[in-house]
Every structure is written in structure tokens, then in C-alpha cells.
């Protein structure tokens, strides 16, 4: 059983991720479309029982790196998969410094997503 938190402001991407993950994993997939709500949840809950966070990079209010920073303050160990449609060199460097676990580029193939998720959950 695995618990995955997915954060993305694009509702279609969020629904797609939920469908793929529901088919792929045993456990619960929690989705959030608002980065501010996600940060409040992380600060309050500390991600107790969360096995993986998948988060979009570009979102209104707070970007994925700000979400990652909030997570790392609470939990250094939980794997973090960053979704991006624009993986620049600067983003990769900043994300690595913030202790991102892995990246996946949008649009992604279901297989690529499930392979990264499997690897991160098994680590």
C-alpha cells in the first residue's frame, strides 16, 4: 500500500495522473490543484504516511520548488517527482540543490511515469 500526493494546477493533468496512478498502485492517491492549499497541508500534516509527492513546477502562487522547500522542512526522506514542460538548465540545478528526487517532462508517456514512480517507491 502506497500513499501518493499529487499537486498540479491543471485539472486535466491532475485527473490523468490520478487515473494512471489508481491503475498502477495499491493505495491512495490524494490530489490538490492549489499550491497554497498544498503547502498549508504539508506544514500542518508533515506528510505523515506519504510515500511519494508528484508536483508540477509552474503553478500560480507557489511553484514546485517552493512546494519542495516546504516538504524538505518537514520531511527530508519523502521522494519528490517534479513535473515540468520546460526543463531548463537553471531549473535542474535549482531543483537538485533543493533535493528533488527526479524529473518527468510534460507531455509524458504513461510508461515513463509508472517506471519513475515504481523506482522512487522501491528506493
From TrEMBL:
SMART domains linked: REC (SM00448)
Keywords: Phosphoprotein
Pfam family, one: Response_reg
Response regulatory domain location: 3-121
UniProt-listed InterPro entries: Bact_response_regulator, CheY-like_superfamily, Sig_transdc_resp-reg_receiver
Chain positions with 4-aspartylphosphate modification: 56
Source organism, top-level taxon: Bacteria
KW Repeat (keyword) present: no
Tagged with keyword Phosphoprotein: yes
Name by which UniProt lists this protein: Response regulatory domain-containing protein
